[in-house]
Design goal:
Elements: E1 5-10, H1 15-25, E2 36-41, H2 47-59, E3 65-71, H3 74-78, E4 83-86, H4 98-119, E5 125-128, H5 133-142, E6 152-154, H6 157-171, E7 178-179, E8 182-184, E9 192-194, E10 199-202, E11 205-208, H7 209-213, H8 216-220, H9 222-228, H10 230-238, H11 244-259, E12 266-271, E13 283-291, E14 294-297, H12 305-329
Parallel strand pairs: 1-2, 1-4, 2-3, 4-5, 5-6
Antiparallel strand pairs: 7-10, 8-9, 10-11, 12-13, 13-14
This protein binds nicotinamide-adenine-dinucleotide and (2S)-2-hydroxypentanedioic acid.
């Protein structure tokens, strides 16, 4: 058995963490032979609730859980961590605009970037879940200059999983038989869910999804808007933002980053190098593959005129969010 790794989860008393912690502590993320020591961060008024979560984790009697540290101090939470799930921040409620979140949440990621910079391992892998996730990841990285920028990622895996599930449903196949959908851009309603390179396994042979669906209009309209608006639809139905599916997506993202993507690509918000004509230095969701713990943007895909337009819209929103966030962080 390997030595335990320290893993931080922020917003640990919240609803996403309530599903996520079990997945991490049961081995679903770092593998069945990797013990974990959980560092759980939340704000001081939530320490009572957090202690309840700590009790429940103990009561799960999980063999891979080497220990738990609940804390309200970011520097304690991030000390020597190999992985950090940055979930803690305010979720959007019905009636709130996503932009309302930016000023409320972006400061949290400035402070946490500074703490990570001081005390985390320099090879720490950071996944930002808290919204606006892409821009929060960018800000966190900006305030942690001693950690490589490629170690900061934002979660678009939930959108990726949603897109895969929509296509599987449309084609009447199990979700595992669809691969290589892409979420481009921001984790927001400007994201571009793209099925043009997706494959479906039919009788052991991979076929292009566009040919199998045979309905371009659906792929450009209903498919795109359903995925773009899925988070809002869950909020409207549950009166709370998605949590079970968000936790599953966070597990998928970190597992694939640590253990590799195999024969499929996945969507991750990563620092843009300008690939596919996107704005540089924003956290943009691309198709990536991962080997030996390093992600790489999938290159050489054809971008249609329709896709170009969609990539430009979401890129413009990210550039605007970056400007607004830097303004908020000035003081
Ligand atoms: N990227 C995605 O796909 C995705 C999907 C779903 C939700 N989200 C986002 O995830 C975030 C969390 O959602 P939730 O449903 O778990 O919310 P929640 O309100 O249930 O929990 C959030 C927790 O964060 C804590 N918190 C607030 N400020 C903190 C700070 N400075 N440090 C540490 N903890 C802090 C709160 O006390 C609370 O316990 C929201 O921003 C939500 O919009 C993102
Ligand atoms: O606030 C939103 O619009 C969405 C919340 C969450 O990010 C999701 O995708 O389910």
């Amino acid at each position: 058995m390997a030595a335990p790794i320290k893993v931080a989860v922020t917003g640990a008393a919240g609803q996403i963490a309530y599903s996520l912690l079990y997945q991490i502590a049961s081995g679903a993320v770092f593998g069945p032979n990797q013990p974990v020591y959980l560092h759980l961060l939340d704000i001081a008024p939530m320490m009572g609730v957090l202690n309840g979560v700590v009790m429940e984790l103990a009561d799960c009697a999980l063999p891979l859980l080497a220990g738990v540290l609940p804390t309200a101090n970011p520097e304690e939470a991030f000390k020597d961590v190999a992985a950090a799930f940055l979930v803690g921040s305010m979720p959007r409620k019905e009636g709130m605009e996503r932009k309302d979140l930016l000023s409320a949440n972006v400061r949290i990621f400035k402070e946490q970037g500074q703490a990570l910079d001081k005390v985390a391992r320099k090879d720490v892998k950071i996944l930002v879940v808290g919204n606006p996730a892409n821009t929060n990841a960018l800000i966190c990285s900006k305030y942690a200059p001693s950690i490589p920028r490629e170690n900061f990622t934002a979660m678009t895996r939930l959108d990726h999983n949603r897109a895969q599930a929509q296509l599987a449903d449309k084609l009447g196949v199990p979700v595992r038989d669809v691969k290589n959908v892409i979420i481009w851009g921001n984790h927001s309603s400007t994201q571009f869910p793209d099925a043009s390179n997706a494959l479906v396994n039919v009788g052991g042979i991979n076929k292009p999804v566009p040919a199998a669906v045979n309905d371009d209009e659906y792929l450009k309209t209903t498919f795109v808007t359903t995925v773009q608006k899925r988070g809002a639809a869950v909020i409207a139905a549950r009166k709370m933002s998605s949590a079970l599916s968000a936790a599953k997506a966070a597990s998928d993202h970190m597992r694939d980053w640590f253990l590799g993507t195999g024969d499929r690509w996945v969507s991750m918000g990563v620092i843009s190098d300008g690939s596919y004509g996107t704005p540089r230095d924003v956290v943009f969701s691309f198709p990536v593959t991962v080997t030996n713990g390093k992600w790489k943007i999938v290159e050489g895909l054809t971008i249609s005129d329709f896709a170009r337009e969609m990539l430009d819209i979401t890129g413009k929103e990210l550039a605007e969010e970056k400007r607004d966030a830097l303004e908020v962080c000035k003081d």
